[in-house]
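Write out this protein's structure.
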Amino acid sequence: MINILKKCKLQILKYTNKLYLECSKIYNKLKKSRFINIYTISIVLFSLFMFYPFIHYYIYGDDTAFHYSNVLIRGSDLSYVFSKILPNVANNLGYATGIFYPILPHAVGGLILNIISNFGFGPFAALKLIKLITIMISGIFMYLLACKLFKNKLYACLTAIIYISSSYFYVDMYSRDALNENFVFIFIPLIFLGIYYLFNEKLC
């Protein structure tokens, strides 16, 4: 019995050591990678944590009904994806949404809905995916910008997490349901990154 326990212990130690070595290899590869590394993975995991409240149900905000109807119409008929006027909204009365409201979030939502509707998902699932995409991409783009500014991946990761956990981002995400305001968080780092590359041609 004692010999069996010793053999089991040795086997466990052997496999534990193998697992540790494999994990170390993966960690070292990620550490050396330029884009996929432990820091970008941390941002993705934090994004999933922020998205968690939307998993079981959609959090209704001030503009939810507006987004729902727009995504539904654009997803039901791809000819309306980038249209400024939606003739089928409001009991076929029609509404010129695109004249005063940027259509990018609704267009993205419509395209997503057109795909996922084939698997039985509806507009709320499309809106959830927009939220998740917005959080992740905003964090990743801020990480890329902060990498250029600080030359330090850890500081860049912390900057990205602080950026996507700002109070304004939270209010737009969970209270107002303001898709366009959330989308702005994607483009702010890109604008400054573009300005950086205008004056610094060399990649760091």
